[in-house]
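Hi there,

I know you've been waiting on this one. I reran it after we fixed the sequence typo, so this is the corrected version. Both the input and the resulting structure follow.
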Amino acid sequence: LQLMDQVLTGKVRNGMAVVRPPGHHADHDKSCGYCLFNNIAIAAKQALTKYGLERVLIVDWDVHFGNGTQDLFYNDPRVLFCSIHRYEHMGYWPHMERANVDFTGTAAGQGYNVNVPWNKTGLG
C-alpha cells in the first residue's frame, strides 16, 4: 500500500511490489491457499476510494487461478481483472470451473473479467 500511495501521490514515477503469498486466493471473509489477505484487492479498493481512480487493471500471472480477486471484483466495471493461470480443463488446483475463459463477469462487471486458462503444460 505504501508503494501505491507513493506512485499515486507522485513521489515516485512507478514501482513494483513483490509480495508472497500473493493473496489472490483470499476472499473478503475467508483465507484460502495460504493467502490471509488479498493484497492486490486491498490496494485496488484503496486506489478507487482514497484516490478516486475511475479504473484499475489487475494482471494476475501465476500458476494458480486468482479466485479470490475474481470473486471480489466480478461485478465491478471499474476493475478489469485478467488471470493467466494453469487450468488443464479444471484438473489443476483450485479445480474451479469459474477459472475458465467463459467466466467474464456479471451485471455491470460483464466483460471486465478475463481468464486465460492454460490447458497444456510447457506453455510458460
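Quick highlight: The first strand starts at residue 56 and ends at 61.

Best,
R. S.
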